[in-house]
Amino acid sequence: MDILFHGVRGSTPTAHENFLKYGGSTTCTEILHKEFQIIFDAGTGFQNVSIQKDRPTYLVFSHFHYDHIQGLPFNYEIFDPSNKVTICSGLVSSKELREVFVRAFQPMYFPIPLVDTLKNLKFVDFSIVQEDMAKLCVLETIKLNHPGGAAGYIVEKNDRKVCCFLDHEYGQLEKVDKELVSNANNCDLVIWDGMFLDEELPPKKGWGHSSIEQGVSFSDVTNCKSLAIAHHSPARTDEQLKEHSNNLKSDKVFFAYQGLSHKL
Questions:
Q1: Residue 82, class by beta-carbon neighbours within 10 Å (0-12 exposed, 13-18 middle, 19+ buried)?
Q2: Shortest CA distance to 43 belongs to which of 17, 9, 19, 87?
Q3: Cα separations (Å) of 245 from 13, 22, 57, 241, 258?
Q4: For residue 90, which of 80, 143, 151, 257 is within the disulfide window of CB 3.0 to 4.6 Å?
Q5: Model-level pTM greater than 0.70?
Q6: pLDDT of residue 225
Q7: Of 141, 59, 139, nearest to 100 (Cα)?
Q8: Full DSSP string of 117-158
Q9: What does the DSSP 8-state code read for residue 263?
């Protein structure tokens, strides 16, 4: 499996020379395998995804804050009727999911009624996608602690396991955190929400994000092989991220950047 980071910013995209190394696009992560393509969220990084015609493509949403959905209409490959994309979320039903995007991309907010226009986008219940993918891989969802709710995901294929835990506030709900630890135990890669530093957490309680330092601790507790810190603060410059990266007290924790390909 190849893990492709197409967007690693949280909250809002950034466009400035001080943000070029790690990238300014918002959240979009792809798992690419010769048998399937899974895309987690469609922030502005979604424009960089190449839709695969020779395998099933699934677009899976954690939740529907703007930084996770705003890039959907700007990957021009979805306007190709031959590119079939199945859309689902562990957070809501297919009917509710479809309504989210009907509301988000209709003429009051977007030039065309996107969902009604693109017949190649198919909204399906998450459980149906799990059944469809059962012969290809194991796809599970897990509750995250985030305002309005959010879903994390676990993908397993050929003894390789990836946990995508973006938009989670660690250290607030013990039961939820224990489930995350249990699922990430000894896994190959955790994708972690490193929006804040520990010192920034107190006034941001309830915002639904974790810290870089908590990611390092989580990697130790779970004994995962690697942990990628993503969902970087839109105010965190390349120099600042580089400095924090150099100060990491773990060889298995790294900072994801836009365009990074991590092979498992």
A1: exposed
A2: 9
A3: 21, 12, 33, 6, 15
A4: 151
A5: yes
A6: 97
A7: 59
A8: H-TTEEE--HHHHHHHHTTT-EEEEEEE--TT-EEEEEEEET
A9: E
Q: Any idea what the Cα angle at residue 16 is, between residues 10 and 20, rounded to 5°?
A: 75
Q: Are 81 and 120 in contact (CB under 8 A)?
A: yes
Per residue in 116-175, pLDDT (tens digit) is 999 999 999 999 999 999 999 999 999 999 999 999 999 999 999 999 999 999 999 999
Asked whether the CA dihedral 75, 241, 260, 147 is positive or negative, the reply is: negative
Identity of residue 109: Y
87: which residues sit within 8 A by CB, 6+ positions away? 58, 59, 60, 61, 97, 101, 121, 122, 123, 124
Question: Cβ distance 83 to 19 under 8 Å?
Answer: no
- By CB neighbour count within 10 A (0-12 exposed, 13-18 middle, 19+ buried), where does 50 fall? middle
Quote the mean pLDDT of the chain. Answer: 97
In the predicted structure, residue 249 carries a pLDDT above the cut 90: no
Do 133 and 139 touch, CB atoms closer than 8 A?
yes
Question: How far apart (Å, rounded) are the C-alpha atoms in residues 28 and 30?
Answer: 7
